[in-house]
Specification:
Two copies of one chain form a homodimer. Chain A has 225 residues and is of the alpha/beta class. Helices cover 44% and strands 18% of the residues of chain A. The structure holds a DNA duplex (24 and 24 nucleotides).
Chain lengths: 225, 225
DNA sequence: TAGATTGTTAATCGATTAACAATC
DNA sequence: TAGATTGTTAATCGATTAACAATC
């Protein structure tokens, strides 16, 4: 099993993508999969897949490939998703509400088990069967419901205070959707997830291609699928 | 101005974070900012900030730093956000609806100007003043409204077909929230944005720290802010 | 056995950091 | 002038790729 000492972010991302594809493969009844197949499905290289996996042990058989079920189990354990996680959403606005309702989370072992907001009109209401709690009950509720991860969807001004409260309450990881960088103590994992930043990256990437597109463009002036 | 030949993804991400902080700095009335200040606000190094910026030209003055307004303008141009972008949301479920309503987008030059769905019950309804169109009108609407970017929030089964339709319609970039990898022609930018993958990365990162936390933990058994 | 595919080592590539002369 | 901070070069670091012996 080897130690997960500290997995590079990029490796961690790819592992999650491998798992997603392994789930698809399992659903299709595939018994075995090769590093080349996994790479092709994700747009990476076979060497990279093998390298990523070999960091944690020997899961494949030369000449055969990987058993889909075995690898799935192994990757789930590595990622820590071989059991359910209780997650909080802090800030019940448009985005927070959508996250609370998102069916993809419980399907993949993440339960949104607590909601928090400062607005007295929102506190006490229910979203997807979960009651919205006041921010000042955060510590209590986090402990009670065994919350270990949080998604932060509050305005920029409120983000740092909310992150502090979460860290104090013992949350181990924060997904930060707020449009500002927050600080957390070293024992807490923090992932930036500002959606506007994603769109800006996209616009940046899109800007680099128009010349290439014009050159490649077919009769319709557009590249086909 | 130097060319944006092809900006590394990591650089592009940081530029977006610099811009976000420059906006905060400008709002606070700061006239000048140093690479060290910018780095401190984001958790990077001053050398990295200077390196990132110098790729595009010389924006600062030795001994002084960067003019906030000048740098802001420059970074906006580099990222391509010095003008408005028309964006489509494909798939009007919980998440798609939240994205359509998200105030952070128009505030930062991204207008959600088109919505698409296959459900006849959803088509024709309005979200945030924008009517939901049927998928088979995608090409037409994209052309009419000058849509150049899209956010894909459809189920896994529908994702590839939707991505194909978007590429054919001439969209230049796709933010893919669907839980599956899709292929796009080389002229189209594609960013993965599966929120479950983000949570899995978080759980992966959180798993690596409990030992460290226990060691560092203060009297309350928790690390302070 | 022959063909396929792994795990791992060595070589390559790119990105980050440190250092410093140039400049305000 | 002295102190500060840039832009850039060289050194370091880590990650990706290629190659191949080992193995099924």
């Amino acid at each position: 099993m080897t130690r997960a000492d500290s997995i590079p972010k990029a490796t961690c991302l790819r592992l999650s993508l491998y798992l997603r594809h392994l789930d698809h493969a399992a659903a299709q009844g595939l018994g075995t999969i090769s590093s080349a197949q996994l790479a092709a499905a994700l747009g990476g290289t076979a060497a990279q897949v093998r390298k990523d996996l070999s960091r944690f042990g020997q899961f494949g058989r030369p000449g055969v490939g990987y058993q889909v079920e075995d690898l799935r189990r192994a990757v789930r354990r590595i990622l820590g998703v071989d059991r359910r996680w209780q997650v909080a959403v802090v800030g019940v606005g448009n985005l927070g509400r959508a996250l609370a309702r998102h069916q993809g989370f419980p399907q993949r072992n993440f339960d949104v088990a607590a909601l928090f907001d400062v607005d007295p009109g929102t506190v006490g209401t229910f979203v997807e069967g979960v009651e919205v709690s006041a921010m000042d009950r955060l510590r209590e509720v986090v402990a009670e419901r065994n919350i270990r991860l949080a998604m932060l969807t509050v305005p920029a001004e409120a983000a740092q205070a909310a992150a502090d409260a979460l860290a104090k309450a013992g949350v181990e990881g924060i997904l930060n959707f707020a449009p500002i960088s927050v600080r957390v103590p070293s024992g807490v994992a923090l992932y930036p997830a500002d959606l506007t930043v994603l769109l800006e990256q996209l616009s940046c990437a899109a800007r680099c291609v128009p010349a290439a597109r014009a050159a490649e463009a077919g009769p319709e002036g557009r590249i086909g699928p």
